[in-house]
Amino acid sequence: MVGAGKRSRLITIERFTSTRNEFNELVETWSSYMDALAEKKDASDVVRTEILGAEQVGSFLLSHFVILWSPTAKTVSPVDRINYDGHVWNIKGTKETAEGRNRFIEITAVRANNGGG
Q1: Looking at the domain assignment, is residue 61 inside a domain?
Q2: How many other CB atoms are found less than 10 A from the CB of residue 80?
Q3: Residues with Cβ < 8 Å from 27, sequence gap 6 or more?
Q4: How far is CA 116 from each of CA 11, 57, 70, 111, 113, rounded to the nearest angstrom?
Q5: What is the dihedral of CA 46, 31, 38, 101, to 10 degrees?
Q6: Which range marks the domain in which residue 15 is found?
Q7: In the chain, N or C: fewer CB atoms in 10 Å?
Q8: Selection from 35, 46, 41, 115 nearest residue 83 by Cα
Q9: Could you give the number of structural domains in the chain?
Q10: How far apart are the first and last CA of the chain?
């Protein structure tokens, strides 16, 4: 069960938006959609991936962020992203947790591993 004490990390969920500036030019940017207290659960150690054709080696971190359900939170999807602790996390999926309907949402997200924690 997710308790209030475990949701101690403030995350910002960002959504890609398009607006027009004073010259009627299209301006595309990420903007804050919602802030939430989250429990962060690392799924595994660093995952190493290799792209042989391009001779590239990379790694990423996979984590789950659990937030309180709300009408706003239920619209979070893989087109959004998380900004947490100076890193951008790409959302891979969302689901309601097993604690019951409309209680918590688990967001699975990945970020590039730059050697930091």
Answers
A1: yes
A2: 19
A3: 18, 19, 20, 21
A4: 17, 17, 31, 11, 7
A5: -110
A6: 9-112
A7: C
A8: 35
A9: 1
A10: 25
**Within a domain: residue 47?**
yes
Which tokens sit at 79?
A: 């087109």
Residue 10's CB is within 10 A of a number of other CB atoms, namely: 11
CA 5/CA 1 separation, integer angstroms: 11
CATH of the domain at 55: 2.40.10.270
Percent of the chain exceeding pLDDT 70 equals 79
Residue owning tokens 């992203």: 81
For 5, the token pair is: 């004490």
Tokens 């690392």 sit at which residue? 42
- Amino acid letter for position 18: S
Q: Which residues of the chain have a pLDDT value below 50?
A: 1, 50-53
Residue 109 is encoded by which pair of tokens?
């997200």
Q: How far apart are CA 50 and CA 58, in angstroms?
A: 6
